[in-house]
Design a protein that fits this description.
Radius of gyration: 15 Å
Strand order of the largest sheet: 1-2-3-4-5
Helix content: 25-40%
Strand content: 15-25%
Order of helices and strands: EHHEEEHEHH
Number of strands: 5
Number of helices: 5
């Protein structure tokens, strides 16, 4: 496996394809590139020349940090790549006072096994009915 920590030479069409493969549709390559280039930390994992996992962080430089877009290609899941992505990104945020993430529906147990804990007071402002269905507790 090869690990890269920069957006240079990233094929954004491939990144968009991986998002679609895990069910996160509607992301355009140019928008993905823009978002990743504004991120504080990124990680891309390649198996030979094939992109198989990635993730990134957003933060304010001092207090608050967020892990986002943790994706592992189907067929490469259950191999420890997600753990590698999350642990690498979390290590980059060790100095922050508050580190959060929003798990994709059905992926909460993955993060709980890594030591993450549920928040008692987390709230969301749903921007769509789909987001409401996926992320708002009943």
């Amino acid at each position: 496996m090869k690990f890269l920590f920069t957006t240079q030479s990233t094929d954004w069409e491939v990144v968009a394809s991986l998002f679609e493969q895990v069910g996160w549709t509607g992301r355009r390559p140019d928008e993905i590139r823009s978002a990743f280039e504004k991120s504080s930390h990124v990680i891309f994992i390649y198996d030979a020349d094939e992109l198989v996992a990635f993730g990134r962080t957003m933060d304010d430089g001092q207090y608050y940090a967020l892990l986002v877009d943790v994706v592992v290609k189907p067929g490469h899941q259950q191999l420890g790549l997600g753990r590698e992505v999350v642990n690498h990104l979390r290590s980059k945020l060790a100095c922050y006072k508050f580190i959060t993430l929003t798990a994709a529906p059905g992926k909460e147990d993955f993060y709980l096994k890594l030591g993450w804990q549920r928040q008692a007071t987390a709230l969301i402002w749903p921007v769509s009915e789909e987001q409401r269905k996926l992320h708002v507790a009943s």
